[in-house]
Structure formats: structure tokens, C-alpha cells
Amino acid sequence: MCGIFGIVGHEIDEAHLKKATDFLAHRGPDASGLFVDAGVGLGHRRLSIIDLEGGQQPMFNEDESLCIVFNGEIYNFPELHDDLVEKKHRFKTRSDTETILHAYEEWGEDCVVRLRGMFAFAIWDRKSQKLFVARDRFGIKPLFYAEHGNTFYFASEMKAILADQTFRRDMDEVSLACYFSLSYIPDSLTIFKGIRKLLPGHVLTRQKGRTRIRRYWDIAFEPDRTKSEDYFINRFMELFKESIRIHLISDVPLGAFLSGGIDSSAVVAMMSMVTDNPVNTFCMGFGGNAGGYLDERGFARQVAERYRTNHKEYEILPQPGDLLDKIVCSFDEPFADDSTIPSYFVCKIAKENVTVAESGLGGDEAFAGYERYLGFLARAHYGRLPRVVRERLIRRFVDGLSERTDGHYTVNHMKRFVRSSSQDDGNAYYGYLTQLNPDIRGAFFSGDTGINKCLDAPRQIILDYFKTVPAEDERDVLNRVFYCDIKTYLPEDILAVTDRMSMYHALEVRVPFLDHPLMEFCATIPPEMKMKWFRKKYLLKKAVRAILPGEVIDHRKQGFVGPMAQWLKNDLRAYTEDALSEKNLKIHGLLNHASIKNILNEHFSGREIHDTLIWSLLVFQKWFDLYMDGNKSSGR
Prior knowledge:
The structure is a single chain. The protein is α+β, with helices and mostly antiparallel strands. Among the domains are: 214 residues, Aminohydrolase, N-terminal nucleophile (Ntn) domain (Glutamine Phosphoribosylpyrophosphate, subunit 1, domain 1, 4-Layer Sandwich); 213 residues, Rossmann fold (3-Layer(aba) Sandwich), CATH 3.40.50. The chain contains 28 helices and 17 strands. The strands form three sheets. A six-stranded antiparallel sheet has the order 2-3-1-9-8-10. Strands 4-5-6-7-11-12 form a six-stranded antiparallel sheet, covered by helices on one side. The longest helix has 18 residues. The protein starts with a strand and ends in a 9-residue tail after the last helix.
């Protein structure tokens, strides 16, 4: 895993190229390299995983007409290498990086469709004076780009682009609306107007001052109802085993995250079945006043004991300190999924033992694992009740309930459900996602800002993806939900967390559930097999029951997050009240203090859980202080 940076323009300042590339040193502490040519500069920071001696970058082809900087892993590179050798290509290394170069020589821009793995790379073609940039199908690896004057930039993280002190840091109001609505910034947007993300499954070319972007891949949900459950189970297990096998390719120590949930447990079980040596596994728990939070360490231990892994645990305490600074500076923009906290620590402890870790991310999107999927499915039954009963009786009753004192989200989920479920499918699903419910959003921002005019933008982004998937059969409407999450929440929330927190510690994390042949197969499984009798992950649970303890499969899903709702009410209350005081909110003047105070009071009193929204406020305050308050951050 690595960090890449590049500039295409007129005059290339090598000192600036080095400085910007070095801002990515945490992504690649093992080596660095620069390439400067007429009108182009490429920088690379390397974390050595494959071909430790021969994989230095930037890397060239035989006649040095092509130069590449690459971040990621190509798992089918041995097969591609052999194919290209048969086509008379000559290799100097045994790296996947050089394989991409020769693949580009052979197949041009279409080389990306042959790559199996996670990647973000840029190739400079000296002959045509063209930059070719690509990002993997699911967005496992990040890629940002920007145009500033006549200069084009790309980078693994925005901090490298922001190293240019003349770059304007104008906040994007649509992105702010999206951030506070969803707790992350979706699609191609970033917090800065001048910087954008290359979308997953897309390539970009820059030539003669023009930028062209096109999509090269998309996932197609085409349920096959001619096949039985047994067929899907057997074929899934074949593909899953194959994915695990190819994801184990490495020249450095390797391990796995083990949360105690089904996805990570299945990964560890299959790893143990295809390798001879014990797997290194890592697990997190939570201290402090965690209320009724379900600690899954016991389930993780059951899997570790069954497969005799080298197991390590770590307990997290609610002490923000400089951790919030580290999290904010890892993203360079506001990002409020509090799974950053356990992710930070599990990556830290893993890096002390290995250089590569396998993760179970992607299993929820592939097999219907989120609670909101259950709520979405239940809408069909709830909608049969008369509207007057739903809105005037049930909603009023549920809205009046206080939250559970132990921190569980049962009542909160009920409130989200009754507030949104009477709407059409797309708007109902957005209602399950957003943190700004209608009672909050109208007075959340200051009246002096234009952000209020942008509040429908995040809804429209979600609806546009939602409507992309046809659903002629009413059973297929869940596929719209899966597609929407694969295009938004997956790349720009959970994969972003994993990338930034792992790269902060120079740890490579791999996600075998997101092997694209496996996910393409999962898209053919009818949704009624993924969630059956209101049981999430029905088919996956049935598939892995023979390789996992029953308690691991059947216990209530917690998710890889901490007990933030309770921490904010107890351990972090003083910190929160100070950070969100009227004095501190006035620094930027974007938020309505009276509304923020009411949100805090509702949360502290137990009237309603607002943990994600409050955490988003804390993160935003810290981000503004580090990046916008006088632009005092020089490169972050």
C-alpha cells in the first residue's frame, strides 16, 4: 500500500513535488521516489508488500515511454504476468506494479477491466503526453484530483494537494449539507470546492489541458430465481475461498481483524482453512461508561480458540485528547463515523505485529446485514395500516417515547422508522440514513448561510442512485438499497475509514468480500434469500454455519462502532459542552447555537439519541480549527 501524488502543468517545481509527496509518508514509510519530466511530476511513497527489492516507484516500461505510480494490490498479477510474457513483454521485476504497465502497453485504457484487486494508479504516457488515472471498482483505494489555474493535481489524500499554499480552501456548501445529513461526504464531492474524488469504477485522462472521465465498470443486480439456495451457498463458498486464497499473497507478515461478527469470523475461518500457519487475529473492546453496549470480544475468542489463532485484544477508553486531531488530519475533511475510534486502535495493535490485515468489510452490503435493511423490508407490512393510524396514533406515540437508558438504539430505530416509512421507497430509505430529521434541519444552520438552500442535495444524491436499479418485481426493491449503499456508504464511509486509519499506521488492509467476481455473483442472489423471515444475512449464516460457532452466528449484531451515545452523556460530556459552546460556534457562524443546545439537551436527558449528529459537530469544530481558522494548517 502506498501514497501517490502528481502534477501536470507547465513548470514543475521538484522541491514542491517532494514536499507534497512527503505529506503522504505515513502511507509509505519504506521508500520514496520522484519523476520529473517536461510538464509532469510524479511522486510516490512506498509500503513494501510484494517484491520488496524490485518494486520501487515511479516505475518505467522497457523504453521508458511509460511511467507509473501505483497504490494498491493486484491479486491476479501472476496470471496477467504469464499472459503478457507469452505476448513477448519483458519484465524486470516480479511486482504487480510492472504488470499494470505492460497491461497498459498491451490493452491501453481497457487494461483496468482485467485487473482484480484494489487500486488507484496514474500512468504518464510520454509519447502521447497523456496522464491516465484509474480507481478500483468499489473505491477501496482513494483518489482525489483538482485543477488550479493551468495545473492538474492528483493524490491519495487531499493534504498533498493542499500543500500548495496558493490553493483556495473555499468550503463547498453542498458538501457541508451532505456531511451533516449523512455524517460523511458522498459521491465525487469533498469539503473543498476545488477538489473532487474520482468515483469508483472510473478512469480519468488529462491531455492537452483537458480532463475526461468515464466509467469502466458497474455492478448489475440481476437476481436469478432459477437457482436453489444450495446452489447459491455452494457457489458462494467456492468463490469466497478463492478470494481468501488470492488475498493472502504477500511477502510480509499478515493477519486479520476479528470483531466477533459473522463477516470477520468467516474471513478468519477460511484463512485458517487455506493456510498452514496460525492466523494472527486482532480484536477491540470498550471501556468507560458503555451502558448496555454489547462487547463482542467473547465471540471473537470463540473463533480464535476454534482455529487456534494468535489472538490479541485491546480496550478503548473514551479519551479524545489528540486522537480527534489525528482522525481529522487523516481525512482532511469532516468525517463523523465514530468507527474511526476502534479502527484507529485495531490498526495500531495490528501494525505492531503484521504489515497486512484482512477485513470482513463488504459482507453487509453483499448479504443484507444492516438494521435499516430490515426496516425497509418491514415498510411493506407497515404501509398496509391506514395512514391515520400510522401518522396520528403510532407516530405520535413513538415520538413521545424516551430513549433506553442503557444506550441501545431500539427506540431510536423505531422513531426513524415511523417518521419515514409512510414516504415512497427512496425517500423512506433516505429518512433512515439522515441525521437531520425534519424537526431539526430547518433551524440547524445559521440563517446567514446559504447551506439551507442545499439541504435537498444529499437526498437527491441518494435518490439518483436508488432509482438506477430497475425493480419490476416488488421483491427486487431491496436491490435498489444495496446498490445505493455500494455507491455511497461503502466507498465514502466504511472503506474511507479503513483506508485512512490503516494508512495512518502504515498498515495494508484487504477486503476479500469485495473481490469483484464474488460481489458480481452475490448480485445474482435474489434478495429474498439474503433476508428471509426478517432474518438478516439468512443465506450467509446458512453458508458458514458449518465453519463457525453457533453463538457467533446467532448473537445480535453490534457493528464495528463504539458506545458513543453513552460516552457523550457521561465521560465526554464536559468536553462536548465546551467544544460546542456558543463562543466556539461563533468562530465560523455556520450553526444555530440554540438548535445545537437543544440537540445536546435532548441527548443528555435521554429524550432522543443524537450521538452521530453530536459527534459530527465535534469533528467539524476540530476540522475548522485545523484547516480553516486562518488556514493555519500548512499541509494538512
